[in-house]
Automatic annotation (TrEMBL):
SUPFAM superfamilies: lambda repressor-like DNA-binding domains. CDD domains: HTH_XRE. It holds the Pfam family HTH_31. The chain crosses the membrane at residues 572-591, 611-632, 659-678, 698-723. This is Helix-turn-helix domain-containing protein. Residues 98-109 have a biased composition (Low complexity). It comes from Streptomyces silvisoli. InterPro entries: Cro/C1-type_HTH, Lambda_DNA-bd_dom_sf, NACHT_NTPase, P-loop_NTPase. Residues 73-86 have a biased composition (Basic and acidic residues).
């Protein structure tokens, strides 16, 4: 039975004098799509499809909006039938005219991606519902967020926004609204592109979270999944928007790194086929000098999106290039005195006395209401105009019984709005860190941290993020704020000590302690620089960080999709083993020759022979072991979504499994391999001293040392252990229990979780802590280590 949308589409097509085939050809969609929409068989049209049909029919603005409203109403009714006739142009994100000649395989791939999108939607809902609860957005109710249309110079031509054909008349859309209507407003914009502007703390992030959750409540199966991306971490000059979106999806949902039909990752397939609606939060947080290229890159796509920014930064980028193409723009408005009077008294305990309904906020609100033009009222009204400052005021005064909010009216202490804002920011951390652990929102007990030390550590983290030019606090990049030379030297030093200890402890089983102490020292002195060099070449020279593994290690029931990487990994292992083995053997041979007192030429000959011998043994062992490890890799489940602690635990388990597999496999290959090649090598290199005991010792020590060196230098968890758990705490920049501290800061509301990373609760708080961290301290002010 035809739906309202189907009947309307048929009427408009007849008015245009077009057949279904002509409309399909002009719109670039399948004939089955048009037929199914008109008959009601496909009653869940994509918004992008509706826009293409409207363009093809050359509808007037009011007809276009009527058709779009009918589609939205049909979507909201919950009919989730799949619009399988739609085909997507590769890379366009819009439905196209291509219909696969192999209909079943095309439909199967379409259905598979639709299922992945559904699972992504479920993960996104669960994540942001938890985050909204953690931020206490609904306690006792959300602060009102309202907006009005932005100035015309920040908005594209309305004909472009409405997607009208040339020569059509047009007028602006009424875009004023409030938080509960953000999804409906976005769906009324034919282009699907919206810019939300607001000053610092005005509620842009709250709006994006509510947009995602409300959108997903009414989302049909064929609609794109709204996903929040912190655009401040994007470098548009080095990575394209679509590649960056796919990378962020794989970071926060590792299962999307699995291969989709066609060879690309599931994340890339979702982005390329328009199944992800990017919600780009924090355009103003993009590094200076990159906002113009970022805006130009956004204009190079036609993806529907929602973008948030502070007005000044967006306006400056627009002045340098152009507005966001086909995008409408709105600007958030300030909170009113009525909003404050409704909200603040309900966040604080009732006052004791004759009037049970009185609260400590009443005198403050009375002053603001009755003497609005006084200096105290003007200052406080200006400060409490944004949800951020109201939330800080609530934390400092409503949630702390011994703090009187009437202090905020003291003009002797706070003679300007800036002084009041600094006061709230300065007192936020001491307030949240004075709470007893059992009163935390989760109800879980946790260790306490001294407020002064916590502020110092958080200041370092804020400074670290400012130096990196990103809002994302990723545990695997905590060492990235150190100089590359420092990271390399620390990695080499820790690896050398660890390998020396392993050599000494294990070697004493075979040789006397005195000899083994020297051997362990030599092994450490040689291996440390080797792994330090490997770290420099692979990581530090590119000034990057080792990313967390996107696969698990599974011995039984593993997927075969990673097996195509076995041969390349085997080759990499062979080359690295040859290089390491030759260097290790050569240096050890020369050193042994020097100790024995032979001449330089003889020592070089010994070093060359040992280098070739160890190079062959380590090359074959590393290649085969690395290839075997690859066979055990399996992608994450596509339903897996991570937070920072779970991602750390997962990578720790992956590295532990790699160690448990690598050490015995590599040790066995090296130990037995040495015994097998020693006889043929003697014919080429001359006599080689070897025995079964020497082979067993080499296998055990090499297996443990090689696995440990690889883990510390070339895995995300190893770098976390070396830099974040040893070096940064040792130098006083972070506490010893780093992840416990970060989770505690999240529970206290100082940090927020955005997928696999933390962010400061607000960019304003990050900037404030960074400024405080850079302020010189006297020795008595410097916090001690913990």
């Amino acid at each position: 039975m035809a739906s309202e949308f189907g009947l309307l589409l048929r009427r408009l097509r007849h008015q245009a004098g077009m057949t279904q085939e002509a409309l399909a050809e002009r719109a670039g969609v399948g004939v089955r799509t048009v037929r199914g929409l008109e008959t009601g068989e496909r009653a869940d049209p994509r918004v992008a499809t509706v826009r293409l049909l409207a363009d093809a029919l050359q509808l007037r603005p009011e007809e276009r909006e009527e058709l779009l409203r009918a589609a939205v109403r049909r979507t909201a009714e919950g009919n989730r039938q799949d619009e399988s006739g739609d085909r997507l142009q590769p890379g366009s994100g819009e439905p196209g005219a291509e219909e696969s000649g192999s209909g079943r395989s095309g439909s199967a791939a379409h259905d598979a991606l639709a299922d992945v999108a559904e699972q992504l939607a479920q993960a996104v809902v669960a994540r942001w519902q938890r985050e909204e609860e953690q931020r206490q957005v609904q306690d006792p109710f959300p602060l009102p967020v309202r907006w009005r249309s932005a100035s015309e110079e920040l908005t594209d031509h309305w004909a472009n926004i409405r997607r009208l054909p040339a020569g059509s008349t047009h007028g602006p859309l009424d875009l004023s609204g409030r938080l509960d209507g953000i999804v409906e407003m976005h769906r009324r914009i034919p282009s699907g592109r919206l810019v939300v502007l607001g000053r610092s703390g005005s509620g842009k992030t709250i709006l994006t979270v509510r947009f995602v959750l409300d959108h997903l409540k009414s989302r049909a199966r064929a609609e794109a999944v709204p996903v929040i991306f912190s655009i401040g971490s994007w470098s548009p000059t080095t990575v394209t928007l679509r590649d960056w979106l796919a990378g962020q999806l794989m970071r926060d949902h590792p299962g999307l790194a699995a291969a989709a039909p066609g060879g690309v990752s599931l994340a890339a397939a979702l982005v390329e086929t328009g199944r992800v609606l990017p919600v780009l939060d924090g355009f103003d947080e993009i590094a200076d000098g990159l906002r113009r290229p970022a805006l130009e890159a956004l204009n190079a796509t036609n993806l529907p999106l929602l973008l948030t920014s502070r007005p000044a930064e967006y306006g400056a980028a627009v002045a340098e290039t152009d507005v966001l193409t086909s995008a409408a723009a709105v600007e958030l408005t300030d909170l009113t005195l009525s909003d404050l009077a409704d909200y603040l008294p309900r966040t604080i305990r009732k006052a004791s006395g004759a009037d049970p309904g009185a609260t400590a906020w009443d005198p403050v609100l009375t002053e603001l209401r009755e003497r609005p033009h006084s200096k105290a009222s003007a200052n406080l009204t200006a400060v409490l105009a944004t949800p951020l400052m109201v939330a800080l005021a609530r934390t400092v005064y409503s949630d702390t019984p011994d703090h009187d909010p009437a202090t905020l009216l003291d003009t002797d202490r706070f003679n300007s709005p800036e002084k009041l804002e600094d006061h709230l920011l300065d007192n936020f951390l001491p307030t949240v860190y004075r709470r007893r652990p059992e009163h935390r929102p989760t109800g879980r007990r946790g260790r306490g941290f001294d407020p002064a030390r916590a502020q110092y550590w958080l200041g370092y983290l804020a400074h670290h993020l400012t130096r990196l030019g990103t809002p994302d606090l990723a545990w695997w990049r905590l060492g990235g704020g150190l100089r590359r030379s420092t990271r390399t030297l620390v990695t080499a030093l820790v690896t050398a000590v660890a390998i020396a200890l392993v050599d000494c402890c294990v070697g004493t089983i075979f040789d006397p302690l005195g000899f083994q102490l020297v051997d362990g020292m030599v092994a450490g002195l040689l291996s440390g620089p080797m792994f330090g060099l490997a770290y420099w070449l692979v990581v530090a020279a590119r000034d990057t960080a080792v990313a967390p593994s996107i696969v698990r290690m599974k011995i039984l029931g593993r997927s075969g999709k990673t097996r195509h990487r076995t041969v390349p990994r085997l080759a990499i292992g062979l080359l690295c083993g040859l290089a390491f083995g030759f260097g290790y053997g050569f240096l050890r041979g020369v050193l042994n020759g020097f100790i024995r007192g032979v001449g330089l030429s003889v020592g070089l000959d010994i070093g060359l022979a040992d280098g070739l011998f160890y190079g062959l043994v380590f090359g074959l062992g590393a290649g085969l072991a690395f290839g075997f490890l690859t066979l055990l890799e399996t992608p994450f489940d596509i339903r897996s979504a991570v937070n920072p602690p779970s991602l750390l635990r997962t990578n720790r388990r992956t590295v532990a499994t790699q160690l448990l597999v690598w050490a015995p496999v590599f040790g066995l290959l090296v130990g037995t391999g040495a015994g097998l090649v020693v006889r043929p090598m003697q014919g080429l290199l001359g006599p080689l001293v070897w025995s079964l005991t020497a082979g067993l010792k080499l296998g055990i020590v090499s297996g443990l040392s090689g696995a440990l060196g690889y883990a510390l230098a070339l895995t995300a968890w190893g770098q976390w252990a070396v830099l974040s758990r040893i070096w940064l705490p040792l130098t006083g920049r972070l506490p010893w229990a780093v992840m416990t501290f970060l989770e505690d800061a999240y529970q206290r509301g100082v940090l927020r979780q955005v997928g696999a990373v933390y962010q400061f609760r607000h960019a304003r708080l990050q900037h404030h802590l960074n400024r405080a961290y850079q302020t010189p301290r006297t020795p008595s002010q410097a916090p001690g280590q913990r």
